[in-house]
Write a structure and sequence with these properties.
α20 crosses α21. The chain is flat and about 65 Å long. It has 365 residues and is mainly α. It folds into 3 domains: 153 residues, no CATH class; 90 residues, no CATH class; 97 residues, no CATH class. The termini are close together.
Amino acid sequence: MKLINIPGLVATASMLFAPAAFADHGPHVIPNVHDASTHGPGPRVNHENHGGDHHGNPVPFIDRISANAALVAKLTPLLPSGVMLADAAKGFKNEGQFIAALHAANDLGVSFTDLKAEMTGSEHDSLGQAIHDLKPTADAKTSAKTAETEARADITSTRPTLADRITANATLLGEVTPLLPSGMTLATASAGFHSEEQFLAALNAAKDLNISFTALQADMTGPSHDTLGQAIHAVSPTTADPKAAAKTAEGEARHDIFAARPTLADRITANSALLAEVTPLLPSGMTLADAAKGFHSEEQFLAALHAAKDLNVSFASLKTELTGSPRDDLAQAIHDVAPTVDAKAAARTAEHEAHADIHSADIDE
């Protein structure tokens, strides 16, 4: 299923709710750009969870790049004269493939436009094959590997820190700030932690047990990399049940992260192309926030909007069936609201329309 995220929060959302190319830990993975073969498909993103993160918040890769000023600064000098970043990126599968193509064109002195045509055209050549086609005298495999290594280095070196990701999410920052030890900055407190959840759990444990956060941090991020339970036991041996205390703190951290998650309406609003698809489908007088409430994904929401429009039935009634208890699937909801139609066929049609809208809005798979 294809979904969306908020560009400004991508780094945070990808970690929290799961999943992006710049996150230090979690479902979003740096694009796999290892395919330097001269045949077969080009580099592919490694999608650990289809649909982005475990709460389903993917984002167009060009938005991820544009939201990362450091990465934009690295890529801008590689662009052909007069070509905008968004135009150059169009057609590529992921940032790894795109950035590798930019590097290859610059490294070999070949036309980026021609290289892109080979990689994004009907044959979808791998980078190695595209290089071979444009410059047969070059060592295509080695050149592709070099460009892919350069792309990976660009992505890794510009990856936002844990503190950056938290700062990018005002709601989460509001949860974290009161938990920080007096006089300690967010950057210092979060150093060494591998995820928002681990960091927030340590902050909550320190507050709950009235023990030193600095000592917990040292145990959890030092050479031994203790679990929170082990760190609590080491710092506070008198705590009766370190495992239970850790579970409580981890639950508090998950609650904080969940509460800071952008809503479905927020994710759609952040993608202007998708918002333009959705707006004409909304019932008259209904806001996007009200219409989207209760749906678990963009695809489910758009399919319901399309079904209501296609069949001229009440969206509010379909929504009640889809988001109420029990939660019907779209075909069952259509059958309940319009018993005379072929519900399965109508649901398939609406789901295809939703899928097309999401695809046209350039959402990563």
